[in-house]
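Inverse folding, one chain.
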């Protein structure tokens, strides 16, 4: 007899779980799928990921004058 596939082993394990643990396992599987989908989106759309990061850190943005910006970028010269 051959070893069971990952899916077969998973099905066997799940079949023996009581309902509350099966619900927890289902939540975990959904979490894994969502995390994978999110990572795939970030890889496929790096510009969108940048926009998301920007929106998440809007409080970190500072307004500066042109002179302040030039000093920050160029230094004292």
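Residues assigned per position:
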């Amino acid at each position: 007899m051959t070893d069971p596939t990952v899916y077969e082993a998973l099905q066997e394990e799940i079949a023996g779980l009581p309902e509350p643990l099966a619900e927890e396992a289902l939540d975990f599987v959904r979490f894994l799928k969502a995390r994978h989908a999110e990572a795939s989106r970030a890889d496929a759309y790096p510009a969108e990921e940048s926009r998301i990061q920007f929106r998440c850190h809007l409080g970190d943005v500072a307004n500066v004058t042109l002179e302040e910006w030039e000093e920050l970028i160029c230094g004292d010269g």
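The radius of gyration is 24 Å. The chain has a mean pLDDT of 81.
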